Amino acid sequence: MTPGRVNLRIYQGSTFSQMFRWESKTITYATIQTIQKSAPCVITVFPGQPKPPPSWRVRITGANGMKDINLDGLPDQYYIVSNIYLNDITIDEINSLNYGTYTGNGALSWYEPVPLGNYTAQLQIRKSINDSAFEVELTSAAGEIILDDIDKTIEIVIPKTITSGLTFSTGVYSLELTDTITGKTITFIQGNVTLIREVTR
Predict the structure, then answer these.
(1) Do 7 and 192 touch, CB atoms closer than 8 A?
(2) Who contacts 175 (Cβ-Cβ below 8 Å, separation ≥6)?
(3) I need a surface site. Which of 88, 129, 139, 146 has the fewest CB within 10 A?
(4) Which residue segments constitute the domains of the chain, with CATH numbers given?
(5) Mean pLDDT of the chain
């Protein structure tokens, strides 16, 4: 697995929080029953169909009538799920009031999340990759990295008690995940860190 790359900005004296999601390579499809002309747009899938986790990336393809909503031929574009209630999936970023009327067919698709139940996590921030000492270390065991296997999220939290004491200007970090069953460790995400100095203190 190639690690993702995301650069972080930490504000000194403020609680830092960053959330990530881990997609597998498995694509799941749900057959669309209807799409409302509404703002935000509500897509209803047939009963018994799978549904994505909240805030997950999804694609809509093959819907007849409401052509504007389709992402056919746009493989790198996604919508973000805003809310799920029973078989209704709301996408806030879509205003379908002026779209054509949905007449049938179409599918909602997404990459299945990787189950997080067997994983632990560790993150370190260093001034440079060659520094032997780290500036910050977070672990899931200490509760600073939250692995939520229900919503399928990985949340990094650095409390203000830690950020208040940081003095570096820039640094680097990586987040590692370890499978407690196989013992295999992967670098999930990495990047640069910028510390924004506190003014009000």
Answers:
(1) yes
(2) 20, 121, 122, 123, 145, 154, 156, 187, 188, 189, 190
(3) 129
(4) 4-22+115-196 (2.60.40.10), 23-113 (2.40.30.180)
(5) 95
CB atoms within 10 A of CB 17: 11
- The predicted model gives 117-141 an average pLDDT of 96
How far apart, in whole angstroms, are the C-alpha atoms of residue 139 and residue 176?
A: 10
pLDDT the model gives residue 199:
82
pLDDT score of 1 more than 90: no
To which residue do tokens 């509404």 refer? 38
Q: Of how many residues is the chain composed?
A: 201
Query: Among 52, 55, 63, 61, which Cα is nearest to 26's?
Result: 52
Considering only CA atoms, which of 119, 194, 179, 185 is closest in space to residue 154?
A: 119
The C-alpha angle with vertex 87 and arms to 81 and 93, in degrees rounded to 5, equals: 25
pLDDT at 2: 87
- Cβ atoms of 69 and 6 within 8 Å: the answer is no
CA-CA distance, 91 to 189, in Å (whole number)?
Answer: 27
Tokens of 90: 């709301």
- Eight-state DSSP code of residue 198: P
Alpha-helix residue ranges (DSSP H) falling in the chain:
160-163
